[in-house]
Amino acid sequence: MPTVREIQRATGDEPVTMLTAYDAPTAAIVDDAGIDVVLVGDSVGNAMLGYDSTLPVTLDQVASHTGAVARAVDDALVVADMPFLSYGTSEATSIENAGRLVKEAGANAVKLESGPHTVDLTERLVELGIPVMAHLGLTPQRVNQVGGYTQQGTTEDAAAEIRDLAEQHEAAGAFSLVLEHVPDEVAASVTEALDIPVIGIGAGSETDGQVLVVTDVLGLSESVPPFAEAFGDMRSEMEEAVAAYRDAVEDGSFP
Ligand code: KIV
């Protein structure tokens, strides 16, 4: 399995591959395909639980999905996303919640949607032995503050702030950084500035790796963000299989 240390050093020729998974069968397929990092994202809210944002997702839900993924994965690094307000309200609660995802659910590391408020917390979690993946650029838990899922870092000041926060999180001990929906040149300059790997989503091709949401990749999502790509058409395959079953029962050919 790639360890946190191996991922941390993965800034060379071979891009880091990362994909979300939320359940055991999908996680096993992702792992068998040789994906380096499986993220149990809070995108489970939109992708699996029928919410229209990640905000309602609870720690119990992430813990439950992380447990399913961790039980199915043999090789990949399993990273659990800390859901909205499960961190940042108080240090003790943040540590307990991150600890639960590692101790009870079996995650190897946690991801925090980062900002000025997560620098000290990142340092503290790392000090306690909980590896942290940072996340900057578009941070969907701030949708109400930002007013949508728009590209971030589009002004010089905003890009400089992202770069500065990225460096602060690296210094605080984060082993990698997800950079979401920023201009390609901003992602390239953050990647250049950091020694830890930058894993992009909607951030161009100059990062050290890529991450996408598995239901988008499989062609199962009802709508896909402009920067994602479907590499399959699972929705049609599932529709066909369900319709074939219905027809077989109705016409008596099954059982
Ligand atoms: O929740 C998630 O799936 C994520 C990825 C899109 C990086 O944060």
What does this structure look like?
This protein is of the alpha/beta class. Helix content is 42%, strand content 15%. The chain has an eight-stranded parallel β-barrel, surrounded by six helices. Helix 2 links the parallel strand 1 and strand 2. Helix 2 packs across helix 4 and helix 8 packs parallel to helix 9. The protein is globular, with a radius of gyration of 19 Å. It starts with a helix and ends in a 5-residue tail after the last helix. 46% of the residues are buried. The structure holds 3-methyl-2-oxobutanoic acid. The site of 3-methyl-2-oxobutanoic acid has 11 residues, from strand 6.
From the structure above, extract its key features.
255 residues; binds 3-methyl-2-oxobutanoic acid; single chain
Protein topology:
Elements: H1 4-8, E1 16-20, H2 24-32, E2 37-40, H3 44-47, H4 59-72, E3 77-81, H5 91-103, E4 109-113, H6 119-127, E5 132-137, H7 143-146, H8 156-172, E6 176-180, H9 184-193, E7 198-201, E8 209-212, H10 214-218, H11 234-250
Parallel strand pairs: 1-2, 1-8, 2-3, 3-4, 4-5, 5-6, 6-7, 7-8
The chain binds 3-methyl-2-oxobutanoic acid (KIV).
